[in-house]
What we know:
The complex is a heterodimer. Chain A is an alpha/beta fold. Chain A has helices at residues 41-48, 88-94, 103-116, 132-144, 162-179, 190-196, 229-251, and strands spanning 2-12, 15-25, 30-34, 56-62, 73-76, 150-154, 182-186, 199-203, 210-215. Chain A has 2 domains: 2-66 and 150-257, 3-Layer(aba) Sandwich (Rossmann fold); 80-148, no CATH class. Chain A has 7 helices and 9 strands, in the order E-E-E-H-E-E-H-H-H-E-H-E-H-E-E-H. In chain A, helix 5 (162-179) links the parallel strand 6 (150-154) and strand 7. Chain A starts with a strand and ends in a 7-residue tail after the last helix. Chain B is mainly α. Chain B has one domain: Orthogonal Bundle (MetI-like fold), CATH 1.10.3720.10. Chain B is 75% helix and 0% strand. Chain B is flat, with a radius of gyration of 25 Å. The interface between A and B is medium-sized, with 23 and 19 residues. Residues 41-42, 154-155 of chain A line the site of magnesium ion (MG).
Amino acid sequence: MELRAEGIGHRYGALDVLDGIDLSVREGEILAVIGPSGCGKSTLLGILGGLIRPTAGRAAIVGDAPQGCLNALTYVFQDFALLPWRSVAGNVGLALEHHPLSRGERHRRIADALALTGLADFADAYPKQLSGGMRQRVGIARAIVVRPAVLLMDEPLSALDAQTRELLQEELLAIWARERTTTVYVTHNLMEALRLADRIAVLSRRPGRLKDLIEVPVPREMRGEPGHAAALTALHDRLWQSIRPEAAAADREIVDAA
Amino acid sequence: MPPDAAARPVDFRAGGFEPRPGRTAPWIAAAAILGAWQIASAAGLLPDLFMPSPEAVITALGRMWASGELTLHLIASVQRIAIGFAIGAAAGLAVGFAMGIVSLARAVGLPIVSALFPIPKIALLPLLILWLGIGEPSKVATIALGVFFPTALATKTAVDGVPRNLIRMAQSFGMPAFAIVLKIVAPGAMPGILGGFRIAASIALILVTAAEMIGAEHGVGALVLGAGNLMQTDKLIAGVVLLSIMGLLVAAGIGALEKWLLRWR
Lengths: 258, 265
Ligand SMILES: Nc1ncnc2c1ncn2[C@@H]1O[C@H](COP(=O)(O)OP(=O)(O)O)[C@@H](O)[C@H]1O
Ligand SMILES: [Mg+2]
């Protein structure tokens, strides 16, 4: 399924957050969205998945959801959004409970999602017993258990320490490679975007406008190879040059939200 | 590194401000107070009529238990509390959830509930007696009202406190509104609701005592008042002890409920 932003703009009261975003997320790609903090990345993602009503333009989908998909547009949240009173399996199963599935199908899906995220031995654990990395694995398992058409990830790894983030990037790619689920990946981390994405959408500081849309020139599988390091470094530096002044300005801003 | 004669140790500065409950100290303190009381009574320092000895109070309790009087009073009070609490809590939960979830219910309900909450509900007993008669319904209604308001407000506040992001998450998975209330809002609000029950239960105990003092044949409140009128101080204090035990038991019951319902914490 393809997901489109058609002239999306948004304001919170007097605060102009997004302006004229036109963007198409292609079937099967990972599109990273980067931009300085406060530029409206989360707002854009919220609009794309139907959690925020835009004040201008619209989000639209093209094509059908794949077989077995129970929730076409599915989020992975930065703060995990787990229910502390439910076990790991309970949190993952939550996404299925309002769908008419057979017991067997339900269990199979949950078991698959837990296995895929390395949580098989943690089904009965509670969120408070888990590390941040494990909690986000639960968030990911809950997302893939519904076989989404599009995954919407809002800085899913930014609450984690650097090493855990590294591990989860690898796992995310491995999981993504199985189904090649269309993914929008919001991050403020340039390296992360360069590692995961097919394309990178760069937003300007608030009000966020689409400043750049870049195809990462090296195939994902070869990005670790030394032969491609120079190309990636060059792209990294170019992107950073364009983001740097905006990030600095955004950092020094006082926000008066209405 | 070997200790250096010229080096001075860094002083520890972070002591205190960490009160810990003791295991034996509370029992010793309680025994000491009771013992001192008993000794003072035996020595004639406390006049029996105004402050009977602990022994006399226990004897009075034993007498009432043997005659069946104790059971009669206890059952009357517990029944009123149970029925009044059940009605008040059920209504309070319903209104509290409505105010926490539905804009119209909040707009209409919150000012009314907030305005009526501070009224000491015992002041309404005469009115309720006019409406419902002197019998059980007016007493139960007083308790129900006393329980309703704190429950409704605590529930509303607890619902407000359920993290928005959890509700958004459920919506993002297409969960229907009713399921969100049941699976996200209700469990998320449970700690606050149980806190409200604690307050409501202590109010219920106050109100049952007061209502029974105003017009009841049986009940611990009636027992205390009647004993006072007859200057039977030992019986009077026995009644007060009963009330204290009832309060402790209710608190322990809610504590157990919390432990079970909130075992995920
Ligand atoms: N619900 C809201 N009400 C008012 N202002 C908001 C709201 N959500 C976000 N904002 C403001 O809008 C701007 C963009 O927010 P957000 O989309 O979260 O940015 P990002 O995810 O890029 O950091 C920020 O300045 C933020 O303070
Ligand atoms: Mg954000």
